[in-house]
Amino acid sequence: MIRLFRHYVPLPLLTLALIECLIFLAAIPFGKFIRSALEGWAFTTEGLLLKAAVFAIVMVSIMTAMGLYERNFWDGKADMMLRVAVGFLLGLFVITLLYYIAPDLYLGRGEFGIGFATAFALVAFARFGFFRWSDHESLRRRVLVLGCGKRARQIEELESGWAGNGFAIVGYVQLNEIDDIQIDPLSLIKTGVPLRDIVDSHQVDEIVVAMDDRRRGFPIDAILDCKMSGVLISDLSNFFERETGKIRLDALHPSSMIFSDGFHQAALTSVSKRLFDVGASCLLLLLTWPIMLLAALAICIEAGGKAPVFYCQERVGRNDRVFRVIKFRSMRVDAERNGVAQWAAKNDSRVTKVGAFIRKTRIDELPQLFNVLRGEMSFVGPRPERPQFVEELERIIPYYSVRHRVNPGITGWAQICYPYGASEEDAKEKLQYDLYYIKNYSVFLDLMVLLQTAHVILWGKGAR
């Protein structure tokens, strides 16, 4: 894992993104060179670097939006190539649009066609090579786990539950004979030799301290010796945060929140986030007002003009302040006729036909841009919940109130990492992603969330 602007990025995916960025940068000059050679023209580089850079930025952004650099994109080669193909088609559309907006960026059809086709072929080749070699044992981080109990079993489950992880467990060390063994006994490494010898013989890159009770036989001198020799030392909470993009509640302590390098926003960061929210909201309103108008007409026609187009509902925002969120109405007017707040459910019978479509495409969220302009929400942040749900969730889920220390968002890290859920257990799982976002906030992470939200919309991920 590489920590890039406070956000953990898997090294294989970062490497793949850099390779593809180089492919896109080289594709346009290559296309012009081949075209010039075929036609007998003189090859010139005037303005070529800018055109190549624009092409690369557009294509990498679209590939990110298609979910092709996500941690869990290992869905198979067919699905991957489908996303690549759709990404290139979207790229063709965006580049063509840019040529009309900025004619100085225009390339001849022959030059662009050769470069575009070359980029597609090389990206496909790079992707197949990545699938073949990224899971090779020699490219994975070799991890030794200290402990064999409940906490160690969580690491064992993580390794077996995700094919795209970048680590390989070389074994587990039982440091105390009375410790309860809850992992596969075949994975245990026999002790009796110094920890440094185990590290050297198994070529360990990282040691994860996952003991259920550190008060019994914690080998601090041996661990320090390994650290001084270049081995990375991690505790369970940091390991899970880095590998999963979430902070486990059962491994979180108030002291770790206070003394960590996260869970704070500098004044300059807050100002820049607010400026971005205002500017992006105005731009998006200008671009989407025809869509919003059509959605309003469709809702009005379906209801026969007898129901309101917009739906306002109380939600809990920053510092527990209650505000009214604005959405397009997607449910029947009598959706909560008994006056009791209900979780939305998959295939909810209260959702109208138009409502089902605008929910799937997230069009129902567009009026929240006005909430962003008013400062009640941000583009990216934890999704706001209703006061009735918040009161119950704060009672049963530890640290739930922490999510109310920042502005809620139209989209968020939890929304792109976790499928739609409407239960207390889902709220607990999403909170772990929200805590990761709050702790590791950066403009870079916001941009990643916004780009990957497009993937959620395009592929209907998490629609309810």
UniProtKB/TrEMBL annotation:
GO biological process: colanic acid biosynthetic process
Keywords, sorted A to Z: Membrane, Transferase, Transmembrane, Transmembrane helix
Protein name from the UniProt record: Sugar transferase (PEP-CTERM system associated)/exopolysaccharide biosynthesis polyprenyl glycosylphosphotransferase
UniProt cross-references to InterPro entries, sorted A to Z: Bact_transf, EPS_sugar_tfrase, Sugar_tfrase_EpsB_2
Subcellular localization(s) per the UniProt record: Membrane
Residue ranges constituting the Bacterial sugar transferase domain according to the UniProt record: 273-458
GO molecular function, one term: undecaprenyl-phosphate glucose phosphotransferase activity
Pfam families on file: Bac_transf, CoA_binding_3
Membrane-topology annotation of the record: Multi-pass membrane protein
Record bears the keyword Glycoprotein: no
NCBIfam families: EPS_sugtrans, EpsB_2
GO CC entries: membrane
Major subcellular site: membrane
Keyword set includes Transferase: yes
Transmembrane parts of this sequence: 7-28, 48-69, 81-102, 114-133, 275-299
